[in-house]
Amino acid sequence: QKEVEQNSGPLSVPEGAIASLNCTYSDRGSQSFFWYRQYSGKSPELIMFIYSNGDKEDGRFTAQLNKASQYVSLLIRDSQPSDSATYLCAVVMFSGGYNKLIFGAGTRLAVHP
Amino acid sequence: DTEVTQTPKHLVMGMTNKKSLKCEQHMGHRAMYWYKQKAKKPPELMFVYSYEKLSINESVPSRFSPECPNSSLLNLHLHALQPEDSALYLCASSQVSRSDRGPENGYTFGSGTRLTVV
Questions:
Q1: CB contact under 8 A, A32 and B102
Q2: How far apart are CA B111 and CA B4, in angstroms?
Q3: Are A36 and B93 contacting, i.e. CB atoms less than 8 angstroms apart?
Q4: From A43, A72, B25, B67, which residue has the greatest number of CB atoms within 10 Å?
Q5: Is B16 left (phi over 0), alpha (psi -120 to 50) or beta?
Q6: CB burial readout A50-82, b (16+ within 10 A) else e
């Protein structure tokens, strides 16, 4: 089982719709979860992070975390063509007294006009 | 300053060359990271430095040699690379966190060095 799993997509949504991106993780002890957006050929840019169960909203983005189900999701409301990118879920894992950020494979989102 | 600066942005090197990638940050972060990202794949962790000491090596081949000469600078020395080592190399930094929650303000990534080995 991979440490962080995402559906690779592509996920295609029409402009103005809600895009829903999902991620599961294997380490039940993980406490911190990040969503990054990456455009082709560019470095990842942080969208938001979440530590607590429930929802966290930031503008058009909402992160949802369910630690019991080991599941984290990202909702993008009013999707725009400029949101077309790969969305990477990342989980902090604790190993030997140090933490490390592990990425899922990413979901490619395509927003069409 | 809230940036991680990586140089060079692009590098082409032969299999017998020796080159170095450089990463610099002035955010007072004491944890720094090297990631490797191949096309259409996620970033893969290579090394973690904490307080200028190597704390995690993810079984990276010895042809990659990291160095952290001070708290602001992280280098990756490259020697005898193979064409399959061609990738985007990303540097990141964060506050040090010894808890399983990770650093409070997350991780800041540089824009990367696009490496091509010929």
A1: yes
A2: 8
A3: no
A4: A72
A5: alpha
A6: beeeeeeeeeebbbbbebeebebbbbbeebeee
Are B109 and A45 in contact (CB < 8 Å)?
A: yes
| Distance of alpha carbon B17 from alpha carbon A33, whole angstroms | 39
Positive/negative CA dihedral, B90, B56, A4, A17: negative
Q: Give the tens place of pLDDT for each residue, A37-50.
A: 999 989 999 999 99
d(C-alpha A77, C-alpha A55), whole Å: 14
Query: What is the reported pLDDT for A4?
Result: 94
- Residue A36's CB: how many other CB atoms inside 10 A? 26
Q: What is the pLDDT of residues A40-86, one digit of tens each?
A: 989 999 999 999 999 999 999 999 999 999 999 999 999 999 999 99
